[in-house]
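Reopening: structure tokens for the FE2/S2 (inorganic) cluster complex, inputs below.
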Amino acid sequence: MAMKTLTLNGSTVEFEPGQTILEVARAHGVHIPTLCYLDGCTATGACRICVVEVKGARSLVASCSTPAEGGMDICTDSERVRQSRRLTIELLLASGNHNCITCEMSGDCTLQDLAYSYGVDTIRFPNTPQPHAKEDMNPFIIRDFSRCILCSRCVQSCQEVQVNRAISNGYRGPTAKIIAGCDQRYDQSDCVFCGQCVQACPVGALIEKKGRFQGRAKDVDKVRTTCPYCGVGCQLWLHVKDGRIVKVTGVEDGAPNKGRLCVKGRFGYDFIYSDERNKTPLIKENGEFREASWEEALDLVANKFREIIEKHGSDAVAGVSCARSLNEDSYQMQKLFRAVFKTNNIDHCART
Ligand code: FES
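Re-run output (same inputs, fresh job):
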């Protein structure tokens, strides 16, 4: 499609028809702050932080949801724009509780960053308390509605990123709230606890329960790794404080998961600290397990296979390789069954 041109902060730039003003600005290295906008999802235009001035338009427009048009003359950082953004930040701060002192997201909060960069140190409006009680009844996620800014990024992440459709916008006006199902608790709704909403929340309204008070952004090192739970190979950030994992998030720009995780990948990391982990092979004798060396355990397994095959033939044994195994290990396993045991009874648990 033929490129078009518009004027962006005094410079003529090209864009593809269909791009929004925000996309055009980003493509040309112009920063426009966003809060509700979630990359890859339909823009909701909920927060109005991304407003810009378009010459000839009566009001400021939300750049994330306004299509660029040929000939537009756009200013992304005029005094009028800055004043509007400051007002929006003030109104958000005046609604609910945005005390950062013990907030888990302090240092990693978009609202905090915006308030700082726009110098919002006084709020001219009376505080409006948020009417909904904190929800803390499930093992994974705390929902603190007093910190919610109703940006709907959590809804977008549930509806469009994970496509679970467990949460949506509920109620109206001062009682507006993000609801699960028909305003049920998370653990009584269709939520599958993938935690994508927590990752999408730009403030401290959705918090991972286990990681609470364990370390904030400035306290942790982020280490990239591959999820050990299945063969998909999802990319994780381990948030590590003093050598201990305190949180896991998905790597947004990494294939194959692009930030998405399942409940195990996101919340199931603490098994590595369990006292119940097996540290040696166990052999069952007289109904009881006893610890054994690898040599003893492998000899036992090899002898059992030999006995069964000698007595009942090769097809009396079968193998199912584990989805946690590397491709190379699964390959070796089918080789063992086909070439050594002489049977094609081999499968992989992720195949079905
Ligand atoms: Fe555009 Fe919120 S980021 S309206």
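The longest strand covers residues 235-241. Helices lie at 21-27, 79-94, 110-117, 153-161, 196-200, 263-267, 294-312, 327-340. Marking as resolved unless the reporter disagrees.
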